[in-house]
Design brief:
The complex is a heterodimer of chains A (117) and B (118). Chain A is mainly β and 117 residues long. Chain A is 0% helix and 55% strand. Chain A is built from no helices and 11 strands. Chain A is globular and about 40 Å long. With 118 residues, chain B is an all-beta fold. Chain B is globular, with a radius of gyration of 14 Å. The chains are: A mainly beta (117), B mainly beta (118). Chains A and B meet through strand 5, strand 6, strand 9 and strand 10 of A and strand 5, strand 6, strand 10 and strand 11 of B.
Chain lengths: 117, 118
């Protein structure tokens, strides 16, 4: 596999459930990101990891918990979510955290469409 | 204030025609960069083109070019010879500032939905 792979593609969960989103990149990149995309709003940065170390936590509620066990994998653990958390969650990677990916930009996955009921 | 402004929620273009998608930005950082991404209905954001604030020439990548007007703080995307496959959402983004560890935050606009008509 190449690029950035996100699983699952779709997820429906109740407010009391616990679930995890998975992101995997096969590009040899050292930086990984979680973004939230809600309808008619700009992409919201959630977390940034550089070489498995979190370098940005963009005031995200504690019901979202990221984990980066190695530079190829990124998880987003979800618990006690609210209906307003329903959105498309996008994972991205880049060679490093400098220059926003520079001339190559970020490589994004196809996202997980999350619905909280 | 919004960092990135895309004023066109939706655009139509005839196949084979050129189209310009507008983007204005706001930053006081002398070193910044501007990006355009395409998001088809499949959801994946695809990087198209990049322009650094110190680059003298406008960036070009195939049918995509970035019309960079620094004094006006605009970075419009021009797509030449539109194809049906160009129908998608297009997002302008900017990197600026340097945080701990050298990280620069990337901020996205709200996007423009482009529809190419046969």
């Amino acid at each position: 596999e190449t690029g950035v792979t996100q699983t699952p593609r779709h997820l429906v969960m109740g407010m009391t459930n616990k679930k995890s989103l998975k992101c995997e990149q096969h590009l040899g990149h050292n930086a990984m990101y979680w973004y939230k995309q809600s309808a008619k709003k700009p992409l919201e940065l959630m977390f940034v990891y550089s070489l498995e170390e979190r370098v940005e936590n963009n005031s995200v509620p504690s019901r979202f918990s990221p984990e980066c066990p190695n530079s190829s994998h990124l998880f987003l653990h979800l618990h006690t979510l609210q209906p307003e958390d329903s959105a498309l969650y996008l994972c991205a990677s880049s060679q490093d955290v400098f220059l926003g990916g520079g001339a190559y930009g970020y490589t994004f996955g196809s996202g997980t469409r999350l619905t909280v009921v | 204030a919004q960092k990135i402004t895309q004023t066109q929620p939706g655009m139509f273009v005839q196949e084979k025609e050129a189209v310009t998608l507008d983007c204005t930005y706001d930053t006081s950082d002398p070193s910044y960069g501007l990006f355009w991404y395409k998001q088809p209905s499949s959801g994946e954001m695809i990087f198209l083109i990049y322009q650094g604030s110190y680059d003298q020439q406008n960036a070009t990548e195939g049918r995509y070019s970035l019309n960079f007007q620094k004094a006006r703080k605009s970075a419009n995307l021009v797509i030449s010879a539109s194809q049906l496959g160009d129908s998608a959402m297009y997002f302008c983004a900017m990197r600026e500032g340097v945080k701990a560890g050298g990280y620069q935050k990337v901020t996205f606009g709200t996007g423009t939905k482009l529809q190419v008509i046969p």
